[in-house]
Amino acid sequence: MATAEPIAARETTVPPRRHRPDSAEAVAAMLAAASTTRTRLAILGHGSRAAIGRPAGDAELLDLSALSGITLHEPEELVLSARAGTPVREIVARLSGRGQHLAAEIPDLSPLLGTEPGRGTLGGLVATNLCGPRRLSAGSIRDAVLGVEAVTGAGEIFRAGGRVVKNVTGFDLPRLLAGSWGCLAVMTEITLKVTPAPESELTLAFSGLDDAAALALMTRAMGAGVDVAAAAHLPAAAIAGRAVPVAGAALTLLRLEGIAVSVAARAERLIRLLGEAGAPARLLAPESAPLWQAVRDATPFVADSNRPVWRVSVAPSRGVDVATAVTTAHPGTQALYDWAGGLVWLMLPADAAEAGAEAVRGAVASAGSGHATLIRADADTRARVATFQPRAPGVAALEARVKERFDPARILEPGRIVTFA
């Protein structure tokens, strides 16, 4: 294991130590020692999502960037394995060369968080389980994880799952670790199910709809039986001043994918069904790519870096209600909608930090179910506000017992998720 070295401080005045192990065994040895001394650790690959959650405080850094490289790719079997520190762009390039992709579109939140674009790693992708527009039709990255090699907080290496779906039996540890934000174990290698990239793609872009009308249109489209791959709405305020390939105050996007003849037929059926919304523009992949990137990465909110940004997941029928409630409480709030209204990005005014958090939590509670995550805010705000959705007492007790089993000394990602603090 490489020796620890100081790096620039992450939200602390004293530079934390950085540990950079280059094998699963080195990770295990380091965690065993840290567990004995109760040395707290923040886990990162390239740090592209390190600013989400509560600040790491005085935790030392466990840097997995040396655990890099694709270890297996069997295109005919639609399976790929890679070490946790492997850049996602390297995996995407490998798959693209064989006509394949990761079905769950991968958001790059680096610009939103003020870090270098394209720096995400496979471990960070699985640990955070953040997904883009194709979540509606293809599931999340959690659904693509077949197997993992990981190390508990006590320094025990374990392997779970396999290289085919039917090998995942018993308690599904890979799915447990996906979305755990590094709080349970440190993943060192991950095996994924990959899929063929679609032969053809077409986006129907309807212009000028308000939020409620856009929600109604997306709801009808999703129930039309035409396999809509993604549905999103960019309100006028979200795209004001941006170069877009379609004229109009707001844009509602429906994406169809598959065999070219099927895509064309389904598009005609949708246009007939949604005729009252007007004639949509038909955008091929190169034309629609900037729009879907804006939805995926919340790029309309990048420039106003001093304004807090929330990511809210609710029932699609309640997405507009949540945005309306927050905007009423804090005028000037901007929203954009993904997942046919089920995922709402909210950018609140700069002075709505703690009060804005109360408004968002209240709106989600009124929606009946869902969760909200504070994606962007300064360190002081993230230290005061619960950045992840507070758990019900029963769920919190269960999570605490799982945490105790995997990380008895509670050294992994201390405080990032308040439930595990």
Secondary-structure map:
Elements: E1 5-6, E2 17-19, H1 24-37, E3 41-44, E4 60-63, E5 70-74, E6 79-83, H2 88-96, E7 100-101, H3 110-113, H4 122-128, H5 135-138, E8 145-152, E9 157-161, H6 173-177, E10 185-193, E11 195-196, E12 200-207, H7 211-222, E13 228-234, H8 236-239, E14 251-258, H9 260-273, E15 281-284, H10 285-297, E16 309-313, H11 319-329, E17 334-338, E18 343-347, H12 354-366, E19 371-376, H13 379-384, H14 393-406
Parallel strand pairs: 2-4, 3-4
Antiparallel strand pairs: 1-2, 5-6, 6-10, 7-11, 8-9, 8-10, 12-14, 12-15, 13-14, 16-18, 16-19, 17-18
What is the average of the pLDDT values?
Answer: 90
What's the helix count? 14
Helix content: 25-40%
The N- to C-terminal Cα distance equals 28 Å
Largest sheet: 5 strands, antiparallel
- Structure class: alpha+beta
**Shape field:** globular
- Strands of the widest sheet, in order across it, are 5-6-10-8-9
Tell me the radius of gyration: 22 Å
> What percent strand?
15-25%
Q: Tally the beta strands.
A: 19
Stretches where pLDDT falls below 50 for ≥5 residues? 1-12
